[in-house]
Amino acid sequence: MFTIEQIKAAHSKVKSGADFPAYIKELKQLGVRFYETFVFDGHTEFYGNEQEKISSDSKYENLEIAENSNVNQFVIDLKLHQKGQTDYPTFCVDCAKAGVEKWAVNIEKLTCTYYDKVGKELLIEKIPQ
Questions:
Q1: Among 5, 28, 96, 102, fewest CB within 10 Å belongs to which?
Q2: Domain membership of residue 64 as a residue range
């Protein structure tokens, strides 16, 4: 079973969205199969093969998630982050402003799905390998 310390070590190598594919590869090697990150406080719930589940601590003070999502602005912010032009805290603030409540990563399918407060899928993207 993977540990939160192993996940933190993998995440410590992520400086921007450009580092995301390598992070996903490392999580897969640890046995993580799925995770959800909640924008309001930055905590993440990680799931493995055998009903394993661990949660990280909150990463920052609670953010208010916009009631109405703005997918167009979110896509602009996401692309900037993926190019390494914003750091993780900035990306989380941008997500909250755009109405993104959480994202879910399916490591087996290599997808990342972003959701609003009512659970509507805002964007599904393939994770590059």
A1: 5
A2: 4-126
